[in-house]
Amino acid sequence: MTQFVSSFGPTRRVRGVASGGVDDPRAVIDRLHQFVAGGYRDVTSQAIALLGLDELNRERLEARAHDEGLESALQAIRDLSARTERDEPIETWELREIAQRLQRER
């Protein structure tokens, strides 16, 4: 069993993530598109980390997710984040299944 381990918190730096600033939702939106495309573990980890940033402008994120049809993807990442907070294992196949469901819903 492969366990998805996440110890991301609001103070942890997010490596490999470029954005116009941490309050700018573009990086999260980019990760949501990538997550829907394939349910990749590294993208999921980055999206969870970005959502944990205190400086993130959540109002802008919600509006942008709505505009780009990513509301379900955003909720899926939030649900996965909650699971990691509870130290629940998340299998790679689960991420792929979620991504496939999101693709069908679009």
The total tally of domains equals 1
Q: What integer value in Å does the Rg equal? A: 13 Å
Structural class comes to mainly alpha
Helical fraction: 55-70%
Q: How far apart are the termini?
A: 30 Å
Mean residue pLDDT:
84
Order of helices and strands: HHHHH
Instruction: Please mark out the parts with pLDDT under 50 across 5 or more consecutive residues, or reply none.
Output: 1-20
Shape: globular
Percent of residues in beta strands: under 5%
Biggest sheet record: none
Descriptive tags:
106 residues; globular; 5 helices; disordered N terminus
Describe the structure.
59% of the residues lie in helices and 0% in strands. It is mainly alpha-helical and 106 residues long. The chain has one domain (26-105). Helix 2 packs across helix 4 (71-85). The termini are far apart.
